[in-house]
């Protein structure tokens, strides 16, 4: 059923594109709304009839994956959820995969957020992903959530030298002094790795500027696609690895499932999104080709 | 309003009302089933209302747009008040205020200097009055000055000094082994993305890309001859960079569309699991 659905969808989409090409060559205009309909079809069809592609981790994704994999168990990792629901479709799959990976490796994970909206998404990860997968892990010993703190870069400027000054308690109001996980953590410099997830301000860039470089802590980032090109210049010297957009998430999920037996059958929302992504990009490229063919034909006609 | 507008609005209200009832019935076993059904229906309505702009501007889009702006402004105002003023300031300022807002008073953190942001905050609000509006310039100057001072050192180090040093790449091989001659290079030839050949090519591209990009923006010399060719290569590098940025932006927007369509199909229409 699924394969039949895929074939019919592809026939409809590419048949329609061919019809548009001939129509355009004849000199008829294509309404912009027709383009929206094709993009909708290209995204909706693979959601209804899933198409999955194989993904292999690129060096920039592997950099972060290998670093987490190679840290000795018990290492302290800070993961910051600095994003909102608008970025969640891209960043949440990364957040889930990285959190699972860290906890599976036996690292002690501290979760926090510089965005008010990030706290709810952090709660979702803890409740829907971490709790069911690791029911035996103890809050305050194996992981802790300090929640959201207002202050943007000001928070980073303080926690780089004194973490508990900004976060005296965890998200439930329990003093961090009583949390075992914080026995050897005084500042951000005491973390073995910081993973900054987001795409706005404050976000991964501010983590590099205010914490990574001054405290010399390895920073890994997972970012919304829109800001990924701005962070590439920091790789590999200032950030150890980067997950850019849903492609980065898919590569990380694929690597996790490939290298860790436990996650072989886990949900892979990032990988699932690559079907609609691929088809939508092909349709966009087809429209670019159609536009160019029509443009050059009309120019040649005008030249005569 | 025209009669057809009334009919369309009534039809949409009826459709989404029916959706709410159907969802509420299917969720009747859950504790907050009716409320959840309402939220899903409203979310579906707002999603479709926003996307309806792609067809043409219409009252549903306008309603969703205004609602979004209003809710966002209200949300961030409440967040700022409760997290910054109540959560950060009051516990360090006054026991009475802390108790009133049921926040734990942090007596050890009390400091008279915390009154400075209170005064500056009040001065900032003076902008709302015509007579004392001038007072808001002082805290504004303070904000601009502090931000500039705070960022200056960070940006100078991370975005300038380290970036300049990162541009000086080892053109004949990466650490730790570096270049060990053609024999070793060809006998250990690795064509993968993480191999030495890819690293060398990448480093050359970064080195020449930066040089040519800078040349394009250097206008004190005529762009002719070898200098002109480097400048033209610079513009190509810039165009490829903008293309990559645009590609990433498209990917981000498609991801959002995937997220919304998944919501509509899974949570609202329940046609996928």
Description:
- The complex is a heterodimer of chains A (304) and B (273).
- Chain A has 304 residues and is an alpha/beta fold.
- Chain A folds into two domains: 2-51 and 271-303; 59-267, Rossmann fold, CATH 3.40.50.
- Helix content of chain A is 54%, strand content 11%.
- Chain A has helices spanning 2-25, 32-48, 59-70, 88-104, 116-133, 153-159, 163-166, 204-215, 228-231, 245-259, 269-303; strands at residues 76-82, 108-113, 143-148, 193-198, 219-223, 241-244.
- Chain A has a six-stranded parallel sheet with strand order 3-2-1-4-5-6, with helices on both faces.
- In chain A, helix 9 (228-231) links the parallel strand 5 (219-223) and strand 6 (241-244).
- Chain B is built from nine helices and no strands.
- With 273 residues, chain B is an all-alpha fold.
- The model of chain B has no long low-confidence stretch (mean pLDDT 89).
- Chain B is extended and about 75 Å long.
- Among the domains of chain B are: 1-56, no CATH class; 180-268, no CATH class.
- The interface between A and B is large, with 49 and 43 residues.
């Amino acid at each position: 059923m699924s394969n039949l659905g895929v074939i019919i969808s592809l026939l409809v989409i590419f048949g329609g594109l061919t019809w548009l090409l001939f129509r355009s060559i004849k000199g008829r205009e294509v309404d912009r709304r027709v383009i929206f309909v094709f993009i909708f079809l290209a995204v909706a069809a693979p959601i209804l009839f899933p198409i999955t592609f194989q993904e292999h981790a690129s060096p920039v994704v592997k950099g972060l994956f290998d670093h987490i994999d190679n840290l000795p168990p018990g290492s302290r990792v800070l993961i910051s959820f600095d994003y909102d629901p608008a970025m969640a479709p891209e960043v949440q799959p990364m957040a889930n995969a990285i959190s699972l990976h860290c906890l599976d490796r036996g690292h002690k994970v501290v979760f926090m957020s510089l965005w008010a909206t990030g706290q709810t998404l952090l709660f979702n990860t803890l409740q829907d992903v971490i709790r069911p997968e690791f029911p035996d892990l103890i809050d305050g010993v194996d992981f802790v959530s300090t929640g959201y703190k207002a202050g943007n870069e000001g928070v980073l400027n303080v926690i780089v030298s004194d973490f508990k000054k900004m976060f005296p308690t965890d998200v439930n109001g329990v003093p961090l002094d009583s949390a075992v996980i914080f026995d050897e953590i005084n500042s951000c410099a005491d973390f073995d790795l910081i993973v900054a997830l987001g795409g706005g301000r404050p976000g991964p860039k501010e983590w590099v500027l205010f914490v990574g470089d001054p405290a010399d802590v390895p920073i890994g980032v997972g970012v919304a696609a829109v800001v990924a090109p701005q962070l590439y210049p920091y790789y590999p010297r200032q950030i150890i690895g980067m997950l850019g957009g849903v492609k980065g998430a898919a590569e990380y999920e694929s690597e996790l499932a490939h290298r860790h037996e436990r996650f072989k059958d886990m949900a892979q929302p990032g990988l699932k999104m690559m079907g609609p992504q691929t088809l939508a990009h092909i349709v966009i490229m087809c429209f670019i080709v159609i536009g160019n063919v029509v443009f050059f034909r009309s120019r040649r006609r005008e030249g005569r | 309003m025209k009669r057809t507008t009334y009919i369309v609005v009534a039809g949409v209200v009826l459709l989404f009302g029916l959706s709410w009832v159907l969802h509420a019935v299917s969720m009747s076993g859950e504790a907050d089933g009716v409320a959840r059904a309402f939220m899903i229906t409203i979310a579906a309505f707002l999603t479709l209302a926003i996307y309806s702009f792609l067809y043409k501007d219409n009252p549903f889009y306008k309603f969703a747009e205004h609602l979004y702006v209003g809710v966002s402004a209200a949300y961030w105002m409440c967040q700022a008040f409760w997290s910054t003023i109540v959560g950060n300031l009051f516990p360090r300022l006054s026991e009475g205020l802390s108790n009133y807002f049921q926040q734990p008073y942090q007596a050890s953190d009390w400091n008279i200097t915390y009154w400075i942001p209170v005064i500056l905050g009040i001065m900032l609000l003076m902008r709302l009055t015509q007579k004392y509006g001038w007072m808001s310039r002082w805290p504004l100057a303070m904000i601009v000055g502090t931000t500039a001072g705070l960022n200056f050192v960070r940006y100078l180090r991370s975005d300038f000094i380290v970036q300049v040093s990162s541009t000086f790449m080892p053109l004949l091989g990466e650490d730790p082994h570096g270049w060990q001659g053609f024999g070793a290079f060809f006998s250990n030839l690795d064509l993968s993305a993480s191999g030495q050949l890819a690293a060398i090519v990448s480093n050359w591209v970064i080195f020449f890309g930066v040089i040519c990009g800078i040349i394009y923006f250097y206008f004190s010399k005529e762009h002719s001859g070898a200098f002109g060719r480097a400048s033209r290569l610079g513009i190509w590098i810039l165009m490829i960079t903008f293309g990559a940025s645009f590609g990433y932006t498209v990917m981000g927007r498609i991801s959002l569309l995937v997220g919304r369509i998944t919501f509509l199909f899974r949570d609202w229409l329940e046609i996928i699991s």
